[in-house]
Amino acid sequence: MEEPQITSPHVLLFPAPAQGHINVMLKLAELLSLSSVRVTFLTTEHSYRQLTLHSDVLHRFSLFPSFQFRTISDGLPVSHPRTFSCHLPEMLHSFVSVTKPLFRDMLVSHHFSSDLSCLILDGFFSYLLDIDDDFVKVPIFCFRTFGACSTWTILSIPNLIKQGQLPIKGEEDMDRILDNVPGMENLLRCRDLPGFCRPTDPNNDPILQFIVSAFIRSTKFNALIMNTFEDLEGPILSNIRTLCPNLYSIGPLHALLKTKLSHETESLNNLWEVDRSCLTWLDNQPAGSVIYVSFGSITVMGNRELMEFWHGLVNSGRNFLWVIRPDLVKGKNGEIEIPAELEEGTKQRGYMVGWTPQEKVLCHEAVGGFLTHSGWNSTLESIVAGKPMICWPFGFDQQVNSRFVSNMWNLGLDMKDLCDRETVAKMVNDVMVNRKEEFVRSATEIANLARRSVKPGGSSYANFDRLIEDIRNLSRKKTAVNN
Ligand code: UDX
User: Fold this and answer.
1) What value does the mean pLDDT of the chain take?
2) In 3D, which of 39, 71, 137 has the Cα closest to residue 478?
3) Is 393 near ligand 1, meaning CB less than 6 Å away?
4) In the Enzyme Commission scheme, what number(s) does this protein have (predicted)?
5) Ligand 1 mean position to 34 CA, how many Å?
6) What pLDDT is attached to residue 200?
7) Alpha helices in 350-458 (DSSP H)
8) CATH numeric code, 277-356+365-450
9) CB of residue 297 inside a 6 A radius of ligand 1
10) In principle, which of 8, 243, 398, 426 could form an S-S bond with 374, CB 3.0–4.6 Å?
């Protein structure tokens, strides 16, 4: 690694304050730093506290002397739970009314220094700036944490409304196929649309309008960076390129980072404390025998759903490792009475933890399948590890992702909208035993494509090099103008 010079490009990264966004944008920050780009990573005060408490980021990034963290207020009181799934309208309001003006002031006053080459803004935050805001002074690249499949679906919503295919009516057949989403013919049903499309009147739903316009806006910046790869989503990326031709598909980013690092490291960027005892438990299980269960960082469920999953997992007769985040279950979690058969079944075949080193867990040979909420990071991590999935999407992009996992890539089963113990037990056995060969075959094929894409000669590897070269050119141009 070359030591960055004062004339090296300087990039500001600003992710949304959520685990799935910070994790992947820190991986991008690490990749940029390894390419001798100076990085300033802006995050909310709350995320910074959680991150530095539960991960080794400060130590890891101390290898890059020119890397710096900067913080900004999210406008919420310290005690606020900040659960995106429960408090989205309130959090959006705070980002718009507090974070937005603060961020704009920081840019106007050159808070990050006047030598910025470009800004890489999380697509979730695209409403913080406008392409013609003349105080920004540097090109804005938008980073999307969603896959191309969900991004393109959301970008197609205005057309679906125009064509009368949306809104979804109250008593509608949720299996109705949506025509005319280019590249997704005969694939998407109403139930595969993001959760926020389900209101009966999309023309008047403020969250839907907000999200769709933020997506459209993010295609209008100077470039779009996506955590996906051409062999997985090439045809859909071509559709997105009709709106934003300068698109860099550089994923799976966690795998690209592994290629670029010369030493073995985990690059953990957790907002929760990791319990590594699960790795020791996995070491003692037979190969391919464990179903790993995790619903990501923002899913919440009620006691009923918790009990259905729990019974289903125990009744499946398979070994399971289950992540129960401290805030996974809403309501009276502490007061549940746990039936004796669940206690016994869990003692014999299960292990529960609050947070795992997930990438490592998925690559463990004891893990034979993944019961997931279909967050995009989890989907890519499972793809790279070559593990079949059972999908129980919760919201946002996850309904689309799970449809692609099951019906486009044949990587597993989509449990969508069902949550009962019989379905859970049956799907676990289908993925782990009855249809194992079929799913493992496609998972292995796609894992090979993913790994190839991040190696020299692969599409993501080449696109990342192009991104770096384009950033260097921006920096050279700026230096030439200033001289
Ligand atoms: C949401 C969206 O659905 C996702 O598509 C978007 O890109 C980010 O926000 P989230 O619930 O955060 O998703 O899930 P996911 O994208 O899968 O990210 C979760 C991350 O947490 C993954 O990188 C996963 O490895 C990590 N994780 C999860 C752990 O490290 N340990 C755990 O125990 C659980």
Assistant:
1) 93
2) 137
3) no
4) 2.4.1.-
5) 24
6) 64
7) 358-363, 376-385, 398-403, 421-429, 436-453
8) 3.40.50.2000
9) yes
10) 398
